[in-house]
Amino acid sequence: MLGRMGTTFEIPSLRTDRLILRAFRAGDLDAWAAMEADPEVRRYRGNDPRTREEAWTAMESILGQWALRGYGRFALELAADGCFVGTAGVLHPADWPEAEIGFALAQDAWGQGLAVEAARAARAWAFDYHGFHRLASYILPGNTRSIRVAEKLGATREGMAELRGVQVQQWVHRPSRVDTQEDAVGRR
Q1: Contact at 8 Å (CB) between 77 and 85?
Q2: Which of the two ends of the chain, N or C, has the fewest CB atoms closer than 10 A to its terminal CB?
C-alpha cells in the first residue's frame, strides 16, 4: 500500500504596479515554451532554444527549487490581463557560488521596465524573508539589456566569475532602504 505524499510547500504571490509574481502553473506551458524556443530570448541564457518538453522540465526544476530551498523564481503575469510574460526571482543551483537574482522576459515584453520591476520585487522579498546579505546577478559580457537592469537596480559589478565553464560578469545586490516589501511590492 502506498502512503500519501507528505511534502508540501508554499510559493507566495507578490504584486507590483503592473505585475503579479506567482508560482508557475501547468497552463503557463504554451507561453513559457514559446518564450524558451525564441533564440533571442535564449541568446544570453545558454544560447540553446528549448523544445516544449525541455520547457516543461525547466518548469519542474523551477518549482523543485522552491521545495528544496524555500525560494525560487516566480512566473510573471501582467496584472491588467493575466498574460504570462516571463520569470524573475532567486536562482540557486547547487553549483552556483551564491544565490542569483535572475530575470527573463518574452521578447514582446522587452523595453517596458518590467524586468527591473519584477527583479526589484523578488529581491526585496528575498532580502526580507530569507535574510540574504547579498545576491548576485551573473551576466554574460555583451548582454547590455541585463547590464542596464542590474545598474538600474543599484547592483555593483564585482568582477568576473565562472559558471559551468563560462565567464560571466558578477553583479552584486545588497539590501538597501528600497529593498523592503513595503517599498518594492504593493501590499495585498
Answers
A1: yes
A2: N
- pLDDT band, residue 47 (cuts 50/70/90): confident
Q: What is the pLDDT of residues 24-42, one digit of tens each?
A: 999 999 999 999 999 999 9
Nearest Cα to Cα of residue 15 among 63, 69, 95, 82: 82
Residue 28 belongs to some domain of the structure: yes
158 in any annotated domain: yes
**pTM, entire model:** 0.89
* Alpha-helical runs (H) found in the chain: 29-37, 39-42, 52-69, 114-130, 144-152, 181-184
Residue 9: inside a domain:
no
Q: Which residue is it, cell 538597501?
A: 176
Q: What domain range is 92 assigned to?
A: 14-184
CATH number at residue 174: 3.40.630.30
Q: How many domains does the chain have?
A: 1
Cβ atoms 24, 62 nearer than 8 A: yes
